[in-house]
């Protein structure tokens, strides 16, 4: 076990040494990998931030529950309380017919038209604000329960634009998944090709090592570690790009949020995000190296 | 120690390098293999560490039939055989020390043990003071001695040398051959392919003459 660890440590360090011997090329490869990793991560971060900004949106979504015209005032209040007691409702505001009429008169400037009417034609309305954004099934169930309450005549839930937003975010997430897949493939190919060239350049070393009894695993190991180091370095580069990018957009984003009277603060990748990037880079590096090594090393036999 | 039984080797294209070679080299022997170019000397040496497999016949090393040896086991066979080449086969981006250490590193020896053994091997070939040098800065004879140090550093039971003095002047050649004699004296079975007949005659060890793919 100690010997095995020693062999791995030696391979890891020697692979690192090989990279240090040609810093220019290594840095360029790491940068290419870093940018390829940073792009999908940045998109993901943007969508996450939009989602969290929207979920904290004030005053939405609200269901307008219209009560029957003949509902007596005490029943209006009782219905409002019953609605408030339902799960998924954060707060209710009862707008009595009189209040509605007053508001209508004030805003619409239709005093004369309204004066012609004998009675107040407006029903009582309970504005029920839902607790955050609910999924379609939960919303449906809530609507059914509201409809079943006595005196309730009609419900209007303005969720069209919520649904549009959801659809947009879904589209965004799908697109990011595809981009991430393609760029992940790019990283794998970049590393695979770099390792393939590396093997070609060190052909005589591979031959001599096999000649004096190096096992396939021994010959493979430094190249796999080279892939791991490339991937890890790419992860570090992408982390730096993301953090720097966040710094750059943080102030304007906060200002925009203030203009919309939102307390929203853009969130960065965080420690777990950076760790995910590093691990992703490492695994892609290992995978790319494995592909190159598997195809290539077996064909090199000592002459 | 090394036994060939009716070994034939035909290369793709029809060239037949060995045609039914029978021979036996006992443990602790020092044997010269001679013959004209194309007589099969190199092929003979390459079959022992399984750099190639015979087309027919059996090669037995230390009682093990190599035709039954699986690919995965080949590295462990090669670790028991020290090999020396005319073109040295050194790694030019590594120091003399690192070149000689490679066989020990492959077997995962602890660090202190590696340093001790490498210095002992370099001392044996007289290059202890050049351990930090790179092979290109050494003369041909010195490079060959680095190759020998690398071959013996693991103290293998078998030593194979393919034209080890091919590019060296007579004095250096004699020096190298004396080194092989010293290793042989501590029990290493040594096989040297060479066409330096005057030197071989002078040393007076067993000689296997190959002719047309057979032992003459």
Helix proportion range of chain B: 25-40%
- Distance between the terminal alpha carbons of chain A, to the nearest Å? 33 Å
Helix content of chain A: over 70%
Profile the largest sheet of chain B: 6 strands, mixed
Count of DSSP helices of chain A? 10
Q: Which strand order do you get reading across the main beta sheet of chain B?
A: 6-7-8-3-9-10
Order of helices and strands of chain A: HHEHEHHEHEHHHH
Uncertain runs of chain A with pLDDT below 50, 5 residues or more?
Answer: none
What is the total domain count of chain A? 2
- The ordered H/E elements of chain B are EEEHEEHEHHHEHEHEE
Protein structure class of chain A: alpha+beta
Contiguous runs where pLDDT drops below 50 for at least 5 residues of chain B? none
Structural class of chain B: alpha/beta
Integer average pLDDT of chain A? 85
Calculate Rg of chain B over CA atoms.
Answer: 17 Å
> How many individual β-strands of chain A?
4
> Strand order within the widest sheet of chain A?
2-3-1-4
Measured by residues with Cβ under 8 Å of the partner chain's Cβ, the largest interface is: A-B, 21 and 21 residues
Alpha-carbon Rg of chain A, integer: 32 Å
Task: Report the mean per-residue pLDDT of chain B as an integer.
Answer: 92
